[in-house]
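Posting for a labmate who doesn't have an account.
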Amino acid sequence: MALAEILMLGRAPAIVGEQLSRQFTVHRAGPGEVEALSPDLLSRVRGIASGAHVPVNRALIERMPGLEIVANFGVGYDSVDAAFCGERGICVTNTPDVLTEEVADTAFGLLLMTVRQLSAAERYLRAGRWEAEGPYPLTPATLRGRTLGILGLGRIGLAIARRAEAFGLEVRYHGRTQRTDVDYPYHDTLEGLARACDTLMVVAPGGEATRGIVDRRVLEALGPEGIVVNVGRGTVIDEPALVAALQDGTILSAGLDVFEKEPKVPQALKDMEHVVLLPHVGSASRHTRDRMGQLVVDNLASWFRDGRPLTPVAETPFVAKG
């Protein structure tokens, strides 16, 4: 019996390719290689294992008449046109839960680094300045007495909130809808949340609905003691507005793990000593990435074995095979 043909796009842990190769006929394509794939090959492919930096957009989907499922590597799936997949009866899955705690750890670590300027303090020591110039200057900010506003109180947002409570922070949140299973104060506008807190944690997904919603008005509402931490998607923040707000003192600082045009990072951000920048490492441990990869494999295996996805996304809550 012929094995179903799968197209692996972009980067993924070795576990994905190794396990898929045992169960499917696997083809691979990286960034810039999709356009060269032959119509004959694309007509035979029934599933996609979608990695980083290769979009599964309408143009690609329309070239794949036999496509049944897109298994996305990551909890965010803004690189996949899930709405169009839903219209065509194509299932889309992601990798929730398995990365929640890792990303929440990174988010809170990034918050601590930013508030206490820990990256700059380490550079100060490594440069020999502690010995030559004396102690590192006192940091203008502290975590004590801060109010954390979370934009996007989903799985990861809740895990961050639990950590924040353990550190004695007041937690508030904003999202598309108010949750009924938490006691944190809800703000029905993002600007209202920013006015009520001095620390904004961005955990919102990407896509057109959230593009640039953390704008100049939100940053002004956050205020001169304000700190922004982003572990969601870089597109959620109006990046030029953020740079300007940091330069002119509209807000105090920022800790960023994601950027608008990754891996490109504005030089203006790199030049600011008080800003902490990480290269999108929120879930980047071998332990967690392997678990994410395993869920990609398991979604594809379950679909072609039983006709059921394990973790379908909201736009394709369950698309029955056949």
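Reply:
Got it, the structure tokens are right above this. The radius of gyration is 22 Å.
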